[in-house]
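Q: Hi! First time asking for a complex rather than a single chain. Here are the components, and I think there are two in total. Is that enough to go on?
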Amino acid sequence: MTHWIDACATDDIDEEDLIRFDHGGASYAIYHSPDGQFYATAGHCTHEQVHLADGLVMGHLIECPKHNGQFDYRTGEAKRTPVCIALKTYPVKVEGDRVLIGLGA
Amino acid sequence: MTRDYSLLGPDARRAIESGLAAAAWYHTDVPRKEMKALMQRSDGPAIRDTVILFAAMVGFAGLGIWLWPSPWSAPFWLAYGVLYGSAMDSRWHECGHGTAFKTPWMNNALYGVACFMIVRNPVTWRWSHTRHHTDTYIVGRDPEIAIMRPPAFLKVIGNFLGIFDAWNGWSRMLLNATGRIHPEEADYVPASEQPKVIRIARIWTAIYAATIALALAMGSILPLMVIGLPRLYGAWHHVMTGLLQHGGLADNVNDHRLNSRTVYINPVSRFIYWNMNYHVEHHMFPMVPYHALPRLHALIRHDLPAPSPSIPAAFREMWPALRRQLANEDYYLKRALPATARPYRDDFHSAALGAAAE
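A: Yes, that's all I need. Here is the structure of the assembled complex.
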């Protein structure tokens, strides 16, 4: 069962950018895409434990700030070495001006 | 303390066990909006620089061939050599980070050409450089430590003519072309990437074989003056600038202000080196493209040691330190921070360094 957690306001994140969201001892990254959609992934790069919140969003890609590996944050797919393992993604919905992230039970 | 630079030796194990490897590094605080602006990609500067670079290479090589074998061809070969054997080092580096161009295929194309010229397998060295950024100058972890302790001056000086580096590159190419991966490469290149290493080594070997065959057919080294030998006679500039990146500074620390050096250099060298003279800045924020490094430097210089004012000044600082490391491996230069900077974490680093001298 999915638990919807209130993560942030829609205007907390600029378009084509992301923020860090910590909850329940885990860390996530929440994205605002150039086409106005919101997405969420695990917060740390799968290559090394570097948080993606300091990285660069380019279109639908997030680039890790340490080694420049890239993921498609919509699907989590690894797009550029050194990342080889996909990023975990989470469902997101917008209610009013709030962004909610769906976490497992 | 004797250092073991093997990636499979006791220092490597110690770095992992102590938490020195893959650690969190010091970063100067930069507001998110400013960092985002600095990280933005652009094709324009790199296209301009690449057009200038290859036009100059064609021009210098053309004049060298035209004047061959007259001694008057020598200056043109020397200029061509620096672009081939040194500028390609910085192109390899920046395109390996994926930051030179905005368009990925442009990064990849220049990366491939630069790797061939500088004799670094593009797959192996992408992973090697990844490790260099994870564990910069961590003994036993960083495969790109240019000056080990005690310094091997013969090797350092020989590399101004590419002797050891290029030889290693070619011998590793031949090893890989036979279908084998060196055990140290296997430590940082994932198994899924290793077939690519071998495929590229075989293509390169074929290109060198064709060049040598042409030289034999012509009874002249001229083809090798264009392909291969410039890696030797043009290497001096990238070795000169590369040694300054970390030479004489601390190892086994997690603060790039302690182990990296920023140097102000002349505009020609900056073109050849693609702004990597801003080396503390590059290591602290590796996703900032080369053309934005001067702006990054202006933004965070209050938190960094004062840059060396020139290449000769940097050598005057580094060389005596290297000589002292001959007798005392633990000696290193600890560069002073300005009053506006956050201080070094001496407690943390003394634990990592043991009883290091300053």
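A: Chain A has no helices and eleven strands. Let me know if you'd like any chain examined more closely.
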